[in-house]
Amino acid sequence: MTRVTIPALHARKRRGEKIFGVVAWDYHMAAIADRVGVDIVSVGDTVGKNLWGHENPLEVTMDEMIVVTKAVRRGVRNALVSADFPYGPLQEGTDAAVRAAIRFVKEAGVDMIKLDGAADYPEAVSALTRAGVPVWAQFGLTPQTALATGISYENQAGATEAAPGMAERLVAEARELEAAGAVLLDFTNSGPVIGPLVVEAVSIPVIGGFGGGPWLDGRVRLAQAAVGYNVAALDKEPSGYANVARIIHDALAECAGDVREGRQIKGQPGR
Question: Hey, which CATH number is domain 6-227, 3.20.20.60, 3.30.470.20, 3.20.20.70, 3.30.429.10?
Answer without folding.
Answer: 3.20.20.60
